[in-house]
Amino acid sequence: MILDKLREKMKDENIDYYIIPTLDPHGSEYLPDYYRERAFITGFTGSAGTAVVSKDKAYLWTDGRYFIQAQRQIENTGFELMKMGEEGVLTYTEWIKENIKDNEVVGLNAKYYLQNSYDSLESALKDKSIEIKDIDLIKDLWTNRPNLPKDKIFIHDIKFAGKSIEEKISELRNSMREKNADLTIITSLDDIAWLFNIRCNDIENTPVAISYAIVERDKAYFFVDKDKLTDEVVKHLNQEAEIFEYDEIFDFVKNYNNKNIYVDKNRINNKLYSNLNSSNNIISGRNLTEFLKGIKNDIELTNQRKTSIRDGIAVTKFIYWLKNEVKKREISEIEASEKLRSFREALENFVDDSFGTIAAYKENAAMAHYTATEDNYSMIKDKGFLLVDSGAQYLDGTTDITRTIALGELNSEEIRDFTLVLKSHLALMSAKFLKGTTDRSLDIISRYPLWKENEDYKHGTGHGVGYFLNVHEGPHSISQRGEGIPMEVGMVVSNEPGIYKEGKHGIRTENIIEVVKDIKNANGEFYKFNTISFAPIDIDAIDVNILSEEEINELNEYHEAVYNNLSNYLQDNEKNWLREVTKKIKR
Amino acid sequence: MILDKLREKMKDENIDYYIIPTLDPHGSEYLPDYYRERAFITGFTGSAGTAVVSKDKAYLWTDGRYFIQAQRQIENTGFELMKMGEEGVLTYTEWIKENIKDNEVVGLNAKYYLQNSYDSLESALKDKSIEIKDIDLIKDLWTNRPNLPKDKIFIHDIKFAGKSIEEKISELRNSMREKNADLTIITSLDDIAWLFNIRCNDIENTPVAISYAIVERDKAYFFVDKDKLTDEVVKHLNQEAEIFEYDEIFDFVKNYNNKNIYVDKNRINNKLYSNLNSSNNIISGRNLTEFLKGIKNDIELTNQRKTSIRDGIAVTKFIYWLKNEVKKREISEIEASEKLRSFREALENFVDDSFGTIAAYKENAAMAHYTATEDNYSMIKDKGFLLVDSGAQYLDGTTDITRTIALGELNSEEIRDFTLVLKSHLALMSAKFLKGTTDRSLDIISRYPLWKENEDYKHGTGHGVGYFLNVHEGPHSISQRGEGIPMEVGMVVSNEPGIYKEGKHGIRTENIIEVVKDIKNANGEFYKFNTISFAPIDIDAIDVNILSEEEINELNEYHEAVYNNLSNYLQDNEKNWLREVTKKIKR
């Protein structure tokens, strides 16, 4: 058993507790297979979890989304499940704190441990006389480890990117000056890809390249596996940056002395951070690039709008297909996802999905992050709802859209809940707000109509969306946990309220919206949202009596835009159907 | 000229800059005359402002509410006006920083300077080699200074207070234990009055006694001018506290060593704070009493609801009187205020107004904090709006209510704006929210319908309301500047959105609301608001076409409650009128 081998290693190296988190050295949301150490050790393949092994205990911590899957996958591995968030269940840090004895040693691979988490661990254990040791106990055990991806990096053409590397680095240096930073170390892969106008295929659904970057006031450095570079890319990068091998950064940063160094402790790994000597002054905050990247430039916005229309064609064709097909036969959730992808694959500049499609029938949709798999999926029938949350990567933008599709007969609770979610969606869609209003404050606008009817959703209302990059990006997030980032013109964000009822149904309606200017008057400068996703919202599922006239008008206007934007790209039968399902509704 | 005399003093004492703020030693919102040093020196009588005098300059800083009044009042005093908030106008700290030279001395009376402000001043000047000196240059100049009030303190009966001193101090000690505090120094007068169940008349409209308190884990001390105490009050206080003379606290606190001392730096004056020796550990935050006082007990809530109904009778009688009287003759704003007071004076347990009534006709209402005075008031005619914001202190509660009353013909903008303010008011009134939702998050609920129509108000949506205490109290405040305090059952707060148009009109509709429990379900525990103020909202000023049916129902339900709660206490003519003005409206 792999666990026994790990314990032998621990004994040899005098490690009493070994922590295996789910992380790469860059704090990425999704991981290349190479970094899935926790899955290798525990057998559990979900996207989130931490394993801790001691002499006599081996636990896997994961959250409610994964209790069932994790329980099944860790059977016979020697690991036991710790259900995060359940009453009385300690966090892994608390568990270590409660059990560790003086002079014992905690081991972890500092490359796969973010500095902020490290600070928390250290602070939790500060009253103990213990040691935290950077040690890699996995590499020798993992014999058939997948390779790091060797795909070639490609240039993201300026006609898509909208700004040259030169402009971007110059903006970054302005931000650095404001923060009084001599240099910044950038470890997050989407920030690096954005800054250098490069893309790659190193992470599934996410067009980034495994790399590091350092930008000083007048020089910049790029650290990467040089095999991934073509001559063209080298030339492109050399306009602004010197290129080093990927791992050289660890020694490179040791040479900084007496500098003001800006880092994002939520993104930098503890190993790299520890190599900064103490003569330096650390300025810590969200990556400066995140703020620059989060406000899209005009070319990005123009492209993103066009891309969203293109993507809407695929989604609309899919809905038409599904609604007709399900009358004839049952369809598996997996076939539905594949069909949707096939519509997208036909589109200009399509690269990949932007995340694993969620096609969840009936009560499956009540489980957050449900994914149909070959050994666990449902057949879609001609009643109830199918929730489809999907998106794609195009060279000229990233999409993310959710529709909950009525397949036939609905019960009154399904109709009520669908209509309430629509009210919530329209509330944010048609909101106006004064300049300076923050991401966090806007969240309650969407919850207000649901709360009035005793409903809620246990996730944020919206996340920032990348541009041919991460489908989830910061700095903003319309959420109670938002950091209070003022919403700026050019920010792109999702609008995705929902209602989830265990054992019954899950409903979510999601479009992408962008912040645009509205009027300026004695009260100040107003901003509003412009919705850029287009696909019909299912009027078969609406109870018009719980919509106000204002809401009915807002929906009708949106549907008019859906028809106008999409109809020219559809076949006659699809077009006729779209005319019908986007017709004006009234009481 | 008084300024010359001050400068002579400054020269004698080697003071180069002297700061005269608007403060008492307790951080009170309203000040007894004794403390109005800034008004004495500058002639400016407004409620906010700071004067700074140097050898050759003398400035008064105040905000937009007071530019006109201040300009007029400081004429010929040698002071010049600094318009706070206007572009390019330095704050007084910035001005001192820009002008002061090495080795110069800033003087201020540390008793009238809050510790937080002192910290800011010190930090702003930290790069200069200057001294900040505690010195009172006013006392010898101010020959006809009013006395400190000598009114007797009285007991706030347990039948009104709901909890004994013993219970309150025991709750406070629980909070102290949570914060690991050995003692807490309480300087804010409403907190002291609440804690000891005492009241007095030391501040206009605010039934508090000038005093300090210290609570240790097993002893408590009360510092006051002993002439203000009757034998009965001494006996009452001695249940829990030892009594000392008011100024003895300054020496008393010098004796604490190695203690954990909890203080509110926004309420403690710099002189008192400076007397705490450095062996102590300071824990700073909002007064712990503020959190206890902010959640009303059941007897307070029951009384406050009854008091609000009683107060509503006065307001309703006043509106009836005004609407009839103005058809016959013009009425001065001052007469209107006095008339309203006369209706309140007739009510059980009435003590005083809870703040200076704002009765502002037409465009006067667009000025925030407008107060009619003997030499500056308008005559009310039978057209446009009168805004009346008023409230009272009763032994069993404090009220605060605003109605904007249509006196006859209105133009379409007045009707539109009145209706928008009503939409905003109803939005918060009928809100439901999950436990844990904060004061700050709720604010946008009220602004949402106004922002949609390009309107806004430049003040908070609501403030906490005391119970026979300060009309404005914390810790909560429904405002973008709220501190993120979770709204708890038993919190009482105002709901007062508005629209203000310079030169045209000002509209505000204000009721007091309390947080109550609603249902608990899979989504969590819901709270909602219960409106406890009752008086008709003027249906003559409503454009029913911009209200949704839901809003119309909410208003109709409120008006039904107004009629049901008030009609039995009115004369027949008033009652018939009330029936008419609270009738159900519809499209």
UniProtKB/TrEMBL annotation, chains A, B:
It is an enzyme of class 3 (hydrolase). Coiled coil: none annotated. Its EC number is 3.4.11.9. Residues 525-585 form the Peptidase M24 C-terminal domain. Residues 305-515 form the Peptidase M24 domain. SUPFAM superfamilies: Creatinase/aminopeptidase, Creatinase/prolidase N-terminal domain. Residues 3-136 form the Creatinase N-terminal domain. CDD domains: APP. GO terms for molecular function: aminopeptidase activity. Pfam families: Creatinase_N, Creatinase_N_2, Peptidase_M24, Peptidase_M24_C. InterPro entries: Creatin/AminoP/Spt16_N, Creatinase/aminopeptidase-like, Creatinase_N, Pept_M24, Pept_M24B, Peptidase_M24_C, X-Pro_aminopeptidase_P. The keyword Hydrolase applies. Keywords: Aminopeptidase, Hydrolase, Metal-binding, Protease. Belongs to the peptidase M24B family. This is Xaa-Pro aminopeptidase. It comes from Peptoniphilus stercorisuis.
